[in-house]
Structure formats: C-alpha cells, structure tokens
Amino acid sequence: MEFTIKNCRIEISFLFFATLTFSLLCDRSGIAGIGVLAAILHESGHILLMNIFGIPPRKIKMNPFGIDIVEGDRAYPGRLTDALIALAGPTANLLSFFALLAWFSVWPQRYLSFLSAANLGLFLFNILPIEPLDGGQALYSFLCLRFPEAQAAHITEVVSFFALFPLAAAGFLALFRSGYNFTLLLAAGYLAALLLLKKGRYF
Fold this sequence. Notes:
Strand order of the largest sheet: 1-2-3-4
Helix content: 55-70%
Number of strands: 4
Order of helices and strands: EEHHEEHHHHH
Mean pLDDT: 88
Strand content: 5-15%
Shape: globular
Number of helices: 7
Radius of gyration: 18 Å
Low-confidence stretches: none
C-alpha cells in the first residue's frame, strides 16, 4: 500500500498491515491499540523535529520490523541536528508519560494508566545506547562531534554490545518468571542480529 501526504511517500508493507490488523482484532484488552498510539507519538516526535529543522521526511516505510523515516534532499545539517532528531522520539514518549500521569491523577482511568506505561516503556527501550535504537544513533552523532567517524562507530558498537547484556538478562528473567513472556528476549536477539549484520542507520 502506497500513498503520498504533502510530498511524503508512505509505504506500508502487506505483512505490516496484516500483523497490525490481526493484533488489533484479536486483542480484546485494548493493549495493542495503546501500543500503536504510543508508537505514533514516538514517530511524530521525530517527524515534528525534522520539519522544525526544515528537513521534512521524503519517505516513511512501515514493515513488521519497524518504521524507517527517510530524510528528504537537503544540505547536511550536522551531527548535533542528527542527534536531536534521534532523541525527539523518546522525548515525545517521556513528555506524553508525564502529561498522561498528570491527567490520570485527576481522572483515574484504566486506559490512561496503560497508555502512560506504554510511553514510559518506549522511552526506556529506545533511549538505550544500542546502535539501531534512537539512543545509539544519538550516541554515535555526539561522538562524531569529537572523534573521527570510524572511531565513533567503534565506540558505539562496543557500548551497544555491553548495553545488550542487561537487556538480554532482563529478557531471560522475564521468560523464567512468566514462563511465556519472551518479548524482551526476542527484542534483544533482534538488536544483536542488527549489530552483527551492520544494519544500523548511520554505519
């Protein structure tokens, strides 16, 4: 599925659409929809800051493994701008968490607590200094301000692998305690595969 919104090409893979539809239809608790809303807030943070810096996205590709935002043609804005754009998504989730928490304090509704928790979870996950995640991309951009790109890439790679260990340990612990919850462990394995295959956004 493809369409265009204000010169931005939106590409949605069939598998992404099918997976999303299946999750929303089968989840009677509403958790899947809450997760989607938190993800939309996250990506909106990236897109908003890109537009503020005058580099609106040229293409947004959605697949089951994530959402890829392709920047439009423009003069390179610098590593600091790259870092700020990378951090915009987690920041949007963190601000949403605090806003929803304040809202929940005056109007305690179950879904507000779930949505605030989903935003906090996305913030904590994406801020990790692991290369494919926003935190890792921001770390690389900040390091490039001080070191050559090759050295910055090496430092980011080392930090990423060390950051994966507690994530994998938490995944094993969650699986051991629940007997079925392997989501965090699967995420750690996926990130490790991306690191080994050099599928990071910048290097």
